[in-house]
Amino acid sequence: MMSSASVTEARQKRKRTEPDRGLRWTIAVMSIGVAGYAIVRFLFIPPTSGHFSEHLLLLQVHAAGGAIALLTGPWQFWGRFRARRPELHRWLGRVYLVAVGVASVAGFGLAFFSEEGWPTHVGFGLLAAIWFATGWMAYWRARQYRFALHREWAMRSFSLAFAAVTLRNELPLLMVAGRLSFHAAYITVAWLCWIPNLLVVEWWLRRHARRA
Predict the structure, then answer these.
(1) pLDDT classification of 2: cutoffs 50, 70, 90
(2) 111 and 60 in contact (C-beta within 8 Å)?
(3) Would the pTM of this model clear 0.85, i.e. be above it?
(4) Are 19 and 77 in contact (CB under 8 A)?
(5) Is-contact 89 82, C-beta < 8 A?
(6) In terms of C-beta density within 10 A (0-12 exposed, 13-18 middle, 19 or more buried), how is residue 23 classed?
């Protein structure tokens, strides 16, 4: 058994390697908000005309999977939650990974129908493919009981799920503050909504590795 000093040291180490409470709550609240928007916008009040309506079923599958990922993902990185509810953590993790698999596959197909042509097709297509790959790696590392690596891949995966949030904040910002047309802003966010997220997580993980 671990001594009390070892337990305390492990808790302190875990606390140092997790985002602070304010940031965690901000991520959780923003995720819930965008998930709720997706559910209402695409499932309860689906569009009946325009670009979205042409591929509605694919869009609804993607939106439902993405919403579930956003609703289940943030809590998985709370150390206290994992320690107190390990079984719930595992079940939410399974739900999250299934949602990612469904949403990423649907998103990959949907990418080829995105507006503005190949710049957005490739941007959103890569996002979907890498999202699927990071989710698979998180699952595989958990199956190997390599939980430190599992957590790293899970963080990468959720950073890509969070692209739904950054996209909806960046698009109006680029159009209003950046004075870009919708066409230019949409092409930009096809890449900007996910690449910085992934880079921030990689920076976070490498910073922790250097400290360790």
Answers:
(1) very low
(2) no
(3) yes
(4) yes
(5) yes
(6) exposed
Decide: 166 and 200 in contact? Cβ < 8 Å.
Answer: no
Locus of tokens 């966010």:
189
Tell me the domain boundaries of the chain. Answer: 19-211
In angstroms, the CA 152 to CA 209 distance is 11
Q: Which amino acid is at 15?
A: K
Under a CB-based contact definition with an 8 Å cutoff, are residues 73 and 96 in contact?
yes
Query: pLDDT exceeding 70 applies to what percent of the chain?
Result: 90
Helix 182-192 vs helix 118-143: crossing angle, to nearest 10: 20
Write the single-letter amino acid at 142: A
- pLDDT computed for residue 34 by the predictor: 97
- Tokens standing for residue 103: 């949403």
- At residue 208's C-alpha, the angle toward residues 96 and 4, to 5°, is 85
Taking the C-alpha atoms of residue 49 and residue 127, their distance in angstroms, rounded to an integer, is: 26
Span between the terminal Cα atoms of the chain, in Å: 23
Of 184, 183, 69, 82, the closest CA to residue 134 belongs to 69
**Ramachandran quadrant class, 117 (left: phi over 0; alpha: psi -120 to 50; beta: rest):** left
Of 183, 52, 76, which is closest to residue 138 (Cα–Cα)? 76
